Structure formats: structure tokens, C-alpha cells
Amino acid sequence: MRKLKTASTLLLSFLLCSISIAQDLSETFGFGKEQFHFGNSNSAAIAFERVLFFSEDSFQVESLNYLGEIELRNAQPEKAANYFQRAYNLALDRNKQVELLLKKCASLLEASEIDLALIDLFSIEDEVPDSLRKMKYFLQGIAHFSRMSFTESHQSFLLSLDATEFNKKNKIDSLFVALEAIKGPKPKTAKVLSIILPGLGQLYAGDIKNGINSFLLTGGLIALGINTAINLTLLDALMSVAPWFQRYYLGGYNRAEKIAADKFKEKQNRIFLSILGVCESP
Fold first, then answer.
1. Closest residue by Cα to residue 135 from 147, 117, 149
2. Which end of the chain is more exposed for a tag (fewer CB within 10 A), N or C?
């Protein structure tokens, strides 16, 4: 009889402890959500980590989800992707899994892990709620654009829109036509021009100031070299002036190539931002 009473007491204590922990976890999770929405990321993260340590239920999926969002706030997309993947592994509802996988893909894109993001995006079927399907193609559009696969990007952005959004689709079409119309400045052309005449490549790329500077600097070094050779010897000119000329000459045409590449990329990025603006507009 005493053993039975002892066992009952232990069972009651266990049940009360379990209820207490569950209530405590619920409160801790609620506190974490509150801190997250107030922008107190550190306090929220501590709360959610505590929930993860003690919980084995649905709190884990949401806690991992919030921890991923916190890492995105902290500009740590790689860590965010890891949290979203862990939440995906624990989620039981398929739509919730897709939502978490899309968040992971968005994080990977932010971390410039384009190929990894595409692998996951291709694994998501179209038979999901419309909002998730559109987000899938929107992220695919971004990924393909980042890889300079503009045809695939164009198709993906169009698929991210509703069939009735004709105005948006026309704008997307126009922007990709404008993208294909970008012809320069071409980096290789800028480099060759600066090899022929220092500064010419920068001028071609639209960088007037650096083009003039490069022309004057290398021209001045040539004049100095000639003057040194006339007044001293050719060897003196080669020893004293030639290394400086080589340095600025090589640096000049390499800079011209980079300036042209940056200008070309800048034009593409302006169109890319316009595409995102069209897709995200109400």
C-alpha cells in the first residue's frame, strides 16, 4: 500500500512538473515573439533558444523560424538558411515546409549561393497555394538573373504574376527588351583601347576624369623618359622611369576594363530593380 502511494505521489509530481514546464515554455515562446516584434533581437533569440532546449513539440518549428528571421536581421543569411532548413526538417504540414524552404532559398540568394537556392527551388512542385507558387517563381527569376540567364529569368518573373496581370507582364517584357539592348561599355573593348592609348578606355567607359588623368600621367612619364634618355642615357631612362611607366600603364588598362564592367553591371542592375518593382507593386 505504501509503495502504491509512493508511486502515485511520483506520478502526480511528474504530471505537475510537465504542466509547469509546458506553461513555462508557452510563456517563454510568447515572450520571444513579443521581443522579436519590438525589435529586441538578442532577447528574442535567447528565449527561442531556451524553447528549443526544453521543447520537442510544435514550438520548435516556430522557434527555428523566428531564429532564422533574427539572423536575417543581423545580416547573417547563411545562418538564417540553416535555421530555416532545420525548421523544414521538423515541419509536418507540406505547405509549412514549402514556406520554410522558400525562406531558406531567399536567404541563400542573399548569401550569393545561387546554385544551392536553385536546387531547392526546382524541388518545389507547382501544386501549392498560389502565394507560395508565385514566390517560388519570383525567387527563380532573381536566381537566373544573378547567373545572367536572362531568358530563364524572364520566364520565371512572368510565371510569378497572375494570368490577368497583363499590364505588369507587358512592363516585364519591355524591361527585358531594354536589357538585351544594352551594348556597352564592353570591358574587353575598354581594355584594348587603353592598351592602344592610355586613358582612351576610361573615356569610352564614360569615366572622363580618370581617362584624362591616365592620359596625362602616362604621357608625362613618356616625356620624362625621353628627356632622361637625351640628357643622360637610355639605360638611366629605363632604370628610373620605365618601372613607373609600366606600373601605371598596366594599371590603367586593367582599371579601364573594371570601370567598363562596373558601368555595364550598373545598367543591368537598374533594370533589375525596375523588374523587382513591377513584380512587387500592388
1. 117
2. C
% of the chain exceeding 70 in pLDDT? 91
pLDDT tens sequence across 180-217: 999 889 899 989 998 888 888 888 888 888 888 888 88
**Residue 20: pLDDT over 50:** no
Closest C-alpha among 206, 204, 176 to residue 278: 176
Where are the chain's structural domains?
Answer: 19-160, 187-274
**Gap between the Cα atoms of 52 and 250, Å rounded:** 57
pLDDT tens digit sequence for 235-257: 877 788 778 777 877 888 888 99
Q: Can you list the pairs that 153-160 forms with residues at least 24 positions away whose Cβ atoms lie under 8 Å?
A: 157/275, 157/279, 159/134, 160/134, 160/135, 160/136, 160/279
- 19-160: which CATH architecture? Alpha Horseshoe (1.25)
Q: How confident is the model at residue 8 (pLDDT cuts 50, 70, 90)?
A: very low
